[in-house]
Amino acid sequence: MITLKDVQAVKDIQELIQKADDYLGALGFTDHGMNHIEMVTKRALMIADKLTFTDEEKELVGIAAYMHDIGNITGRQNHSIAGSIMAFQLLRELHMDITHISKIMTAIANHDENNSEITDTISAVLIIADKSDVRQSRVREKNRQKFDIHDRVNFAVQSSSLIVINGNKEIWLNLEIDTSLSPMMDYFEIFLSRMLLSKKAAQKLGYHFHLKINSSILA
Ligand SMILES: [Fe+2]
Ligand SMILES: [Fe+2]
Asked: What is the Å distance from ligand 2's center to 77 Cα?
């Protein structure tokens, strides 16, 4: 089986991640480069591990997470669909089994909140890991006067943790937000749809999704 390590070793894929992020950077988006990819991959694997996925499923989750944002190279809109089709070609070149490729394609194609149907557990894990990555270091803009709402919200997040509690079947996203840097309403304006999608994704896994900001349990 083609593993996450095999995919991570492919220079072309590394370059696509970098170039897609350069493009988004030029458009003023927050970090979608290797730091984001590593964070999402790490969290996706953590969830898969806690939920006792098979070794094969863990590899698929890891690969889907690693490749999920390559489609940004073609533009932000529909980047999930573009990335899915790009993954088909790239994984074909590695002679990956079509059954595995199709699972990764579905997960990548459905990771965006504007265009998502969650039909399987690999897609569900990718969504929760991706939507949980909110942090100060994702902000590229150095001048705070020029911050947009995404910059403000990410900049205000002092820490975040994603925790899976098997016994209660709960997944918790815990955020510490400095509300002097960004009002809570800003967070909800851009994150409500992502949190609702995370909730649906957790349901697909048979879990409840909870969001805690500072000391308030909001969901
Ligand atoms: Fe994305
Ligand atoms: Fe992402």
From this structure: 13
pLDDT digits over 142-190, tens only? Answer: 899 999 999 999 999 999 999 999 999 999 999 999 999 988 888 888 8
Radius of gyration of the chain (CA): 17
How many residues are recorded in the chain? 219
Q: How far is ligand 1, taken at its centre, from the CA of residue 171, in Å?
A: 21
Sign of CA dihedral 146, 152, 154, 160: positive
Distance 219 CA to ligand 1 centre (A): 23
Give yes or no for a contact between 80 and 110, defined as CB atoms under 8 angstroms apart. yes
Domains of the chain in start order, with CATH, are: 4-217 (1.10.3210)
Tokens 């925790």 correspond to what residue? 163
State the ligand closest to the CA atom of 43. Answer: 2
